[in-house]
Predict the 3D structure of the following.
Amino acid sequence: MPVNKSDDPFALVLLSGGLDSTACIYYYINLGFQVRTLFIDYGQRAGKNEFQSASNIASYFGVSFKCCKFECEKDFLPGEIKGRNAFLVLSALLADPKITGLISIGVHSGTTYYDCSEAFIKEMNRILQGYFDGRVILSAPFLRWNKRMIFNYFKDNRLPIHLTYSCENGTDIPCGKCLSCLDRGALNDAC
């Protein structure tokens, strides 16, 4: 992997511990970016396992890892959490108000969620433009890729799939029933 110099461009990857955000780390390292990661614990069921996975992934790639925790009395159910990705992006601004460069999020095609769409990325960039006058840009490098393409990117580059975690229920052994588990299971079965 390339060694990052202090004058390299900067990318903050919103790291969930799953395939998509892990692929973002590798993607930006390969482009010569200085990569940092941020895990946001907002009270999600899988928070403990996602945190452990994200921490292990950051260590594997030798990039900095920071965690922000927000208290919330809501018990989030599996599936779409409306506003989640906007919350994650805006939380990154709270975590580092002097940020410059890219904020990277691992969204991809093939989902009906608004906050995984080109329209969402465009709107969030309009908001960031208002705050930062072009110094911060939301980047979604896999926005036009489907999950299979990201999975193949993982395999082709020998990325550490064993370190990732994808279960919305947060069980130590993935439940195999939630949307994330079913999505991942379909990928594994096809190989």
The helical segments are 19-30, 47-61, 84-95, 118-132, 147-156, 179-189. The longest helix spans residues 47-61. Residues 10-189 form a domain with the Rossmann fold fold (CATH 3.40.50.620).
